[in-house]
């Protein structure tokens, strides 16, 4: 919907799509480019064209680096991120208490609670880098942190 | 490096990895911030390392012999001693405390009087369906947290129960439904998913909600359209659907339900509701876990109940238990004591100011390992070891499972465990 706001909304069908809404959906999935919408190149839509370019910056070829920030001031070491992370779940041995802390940590393990604070071990095996399709949009650690200490960012 | 149980809170997590050389603790892995603080207590600045005696309004260091002599003298002169605390010591020390109270013909009480002890008392009439944490991991599909901010008071509770992937609940979080009933939007609401129910109830109206649920259980279709206690009709119906349809539901009862201002007992109504659903339900059941704060508060209830038949507020007279309705609060309020022994707690901080003033008037003997507000008014201070780190002992988890605490590091020289200190007081008292 955010993208649709900046389109001309004339349903001119010049891009080959029936409506501007359909174009916006395809734009989101990366099937078409902003330049495919020819009316948008006209001078009266210049401002909207620039905003769209800015919004879609990441998908236009500029690769951004994944970063997971753990705020150690907020974190209280509940270990929900350790248990809930699908990568940890796949590789760590199951125990009675869900996911027990292991030492030395498994080489795929993303999170570990040490000294009452959560710490990030290695980012290479994160689903956002390794997996494909919908799994790539994994955000469980950020969603379920009760203290909102985990933040996923692209820098 | 080994796995040991943590004594930070009543959950007593038994999967904490501690790296230690027997003198210092190097690393604590897996413990939450609360547990880590407990391990840090070993070398903390506010640790008491020597016995102390009050001399002209000043606490002065003394030897153990002098301290015990002063204690014996105080106890000899006292007719109505008061013993309080015992929720952060091992079960063995609690047994010694009861023995001492019996010997002195005193009154003994634990923190459980102002905590979950009420629920256990009420359960004698209504019945109580208990369950364990491993049941919550492996079988539960409905978790209700009522009147507690579990994410902050017991940080690892949600991690262990809600998020863990158990034997019959392989997908973990997806298959378990969480219901939080609280008047305040606490940090616990942060773990809410799409299917979960967050109920922000009006303060003090829990009893209305329970009554409506009870009525609905008996004859369905009687819910008023405007809802009850600030909860709308749809949420109420969803809650009822989960309650009656759950295979294995668990209600976590927090402190919030105990401290409501209404005259009728909320806990009794809730326990009756649980029993009512369990009778009606064909496939599953609802059970209860009590959330407490101190790590061995339930231990005192168990030790006292199995030895003397009452779980808290025991009054001894003529070396036997007598029936009384008094609690620690009413005792201090009436100033019905002339000497007090406080073990492992800080009543000056957590009791009301009026009571604290009255408690400070009479001689006070403190057995504890850290400096607190109570230390400032104590007449004799006896330092003890930290149970679960420097000495062994038995403790009861919040689901009534006994767990053996272990010794990792040696205590500072010349410091004894709570059990030994109480034992010595008993022996020295018997001698004279």
Blueprint of the fold:
The complex is a heterodimer of chains A (155) and B (432).
Chain A: H1 2-5, H2 20-29, H3 46-55, E1 66-70, H4 80-84, H5 86-91, E2 111-114, E3 117-120, H6 127-130, H7 140-144, E4 150-154
Chain B: E1 2-4, E2 16-20, E3 25-29, H1 33-40, E4 52-54, E5 59-61, H2 64-76, E6 81-85, H3 91-104, E7 107-110, H4 117-126, H5 133-138, E8 142-146, H6 150-153, H7 157-161, E9 177-182, E10 197-200, H8 206-218, H9 233-245, E11 248-253, H10 255-258, H11 266-280, E12 285-290, H12 297-308, E13 314-317, E14 320-322, H13 328-333, E15 339-343, H14 347-350, H15 353-361, E16 364-368, E17 380-383, E18 393-396, E19 402-405, H16 418-431
Parallel strand pairs in B: 6-7, 6-15, 8-9, 8-11, 9-10, 11-12, 15-16, 16-17
Antiparallel strand pairs in B: 1-2, 2-3, 4-5, 4-17, 7-13, 13-14, 18-19
Helix pairs in contact in B: 2-16, 3-12, 3-16, 4-11, 8-11
Write a concise keyword list for the protein shown above.
heterodimer; A: 155 residues; alpha+beta; 3-methyladenine DNA Glycosylase II, Chain A, domain 3; Alpha-Beta Plaits; two-stranded antiparallel sheet; two-stranded antiparallel ribbon; 4 strands; elongated; B: 432 residues; alpha/beta; Rossmann fold; Dimethylsulfoxide Reductase, domain 2; nine-stranded mixed sheet; five-stranded parallel sheet; 19 strands; globular
Written overview of the protein:
The complex is a heterodimer of chains A (155) and B (432). With 155 residues, chain A is of the alpha+beta class. Chain A has two domains: 2-60, 3-methyladenine DNA Glycosylase II, Chain A, domain 3; 66-154, 2-Layer Sandwich (Alpha-Beta Plaits), CATH 3.30.70. Chain A has seven helices and four strands, in the order αααβααββααβ. In chain A, the strands form two sheets. In chain A, strands 1-4 form a two-stranded antiparallel sheet. In chain A, strands 2-3 form a two-stranded antiparallel sheet. In chain A, a hairpin with a 2-residue loop joins strand 2 (111-114) and strand 3. By secondary structure, chain B is α/β, with parallel strands linked by helices. Chain B has two domains: 47-113 and 309-431, 3-Layer(aba) Sandwich (Rossmann fold); 117-290, Dimethylsulfoxide Reductase, domain 2. Chain B has a nine-stranded mixed beta sheet. A five-stranded parallel beta sheet of chain B has the order 10-9-8-11-12. Chain B is globular, with a radius of gyration of 23 Å. The termini of chain B are far apart.
């Amino acid at each position: 919907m955010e993208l649709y706001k900046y389109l001309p909304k004339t349903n001119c069908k010049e891009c080959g799509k029936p409506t501007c809404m359909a174009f916006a959906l395809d734009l989101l999935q990366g099937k078409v480019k902003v330049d495919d919408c020819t009316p948008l190149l006209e001078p009266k839509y210049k401002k909207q064209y620039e905003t769209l370019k800015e919004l879609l910056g990441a998908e236009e070829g500029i690769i951004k680096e994944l970063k997971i920030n753990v705020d150690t001031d907020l974190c209280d070491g509940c270990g929900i991120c350790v248990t809930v992370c699908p990568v940890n779940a796949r590789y760590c041995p199951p125990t009675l208490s869900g996911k027990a802390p292991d030492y030395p940590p498994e080489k795929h393990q993303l999170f570990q609670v040490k000294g009452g604070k959560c710490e990030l071990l290695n980012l290479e095996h994160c689903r956002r880098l390794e997996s494909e399709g919908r799994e790539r949009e994994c955000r469980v650690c950020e969603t379920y942190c009760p203290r909102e200490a985990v933040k996923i960012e692209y820098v | 490096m080994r796995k040991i149980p943590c004594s930070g809170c009543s959950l007593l997590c038994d999967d904490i990895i501690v790296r230690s050389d027997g003198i210092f603790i190097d690393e604590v892995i897996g413990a939450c911030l609360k547990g880590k603080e407990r391990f840090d207590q070993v070398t903390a600045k506010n640790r008491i390392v020597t016995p102390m005696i009050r001399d002209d309004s000043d606490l002065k260091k003394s030897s153990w012999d002098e301290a015990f002599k002063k204690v014996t003298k105080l106890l000899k002169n006292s007719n109505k001693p008061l013993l309080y605390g015992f929720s952060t010591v091992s079960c063995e020390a609690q047994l010694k405390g009861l023995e001492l109270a019996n010997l002195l013909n005193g009154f003994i009480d634990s923190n459980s009087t102002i905590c979950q002890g009420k629920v256990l008392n009420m359960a004698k009439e209504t019945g109580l369906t208990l369950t364990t944490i491993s049941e919550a991991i492996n079988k539960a599909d409905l978790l209700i947290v009522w009147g507690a901010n579990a994410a902050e008071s017991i940080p690892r509770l949600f991690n262990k129960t809600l998020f863990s992937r158990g034997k019959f609940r392989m997908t973990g979080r997806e298959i378990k439904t969480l219901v939080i009933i609280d008047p305040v939007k606490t940090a616990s609401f942060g773990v809410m998913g799409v299917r979960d129910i967050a109920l922000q109830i009006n303060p003090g109206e829990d009893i209305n909600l329970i009554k409506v649920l009870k009525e609905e259980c008996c004859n369905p279709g009687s819910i008023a359209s405007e809802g009850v206690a600030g909860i709308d009709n749809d949420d109420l119906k969803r809650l009822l659907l989960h309650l009656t349809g759950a295979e294995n539901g668990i209600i976590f009862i927090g402190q919030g339900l105990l401290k409501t201002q209404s005259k009728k007992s909320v806990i009794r109504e809730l326990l009756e509701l649980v029993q009512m659903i369990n009778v009606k339900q064909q496939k599953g059941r609802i059970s209860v876990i009590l959330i407490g704060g101190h790590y061995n508060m339930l231990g005192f209830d168990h030790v006292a109940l199995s030895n003397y038949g009452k779980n808290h507020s025991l009054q001894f007279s003529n070396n036997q238990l007598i029936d009384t309705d008094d609690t620690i609060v009413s005792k201090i309020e009436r100033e019905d004591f002339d000497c007090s022994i406080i073990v492992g707690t800080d009543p000056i901080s957590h009791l009301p100011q009026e009571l604290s003033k009255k408690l400070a008037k009479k001689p006070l003997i403190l057995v504890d390992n850290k400096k607190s507000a109570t230390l400032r008014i104590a007449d004799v201070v006896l330092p003890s070891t930290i149970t679960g780190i420097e000495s062994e002992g038995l403790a009861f988890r919040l689901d009534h499972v006994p767990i053996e605490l272990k010794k990792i590091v040696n205590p500072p020289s010349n410091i004894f465990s709570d059990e030994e200190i109480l034992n010595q007081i008993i022996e020295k008292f018997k001698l004279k």
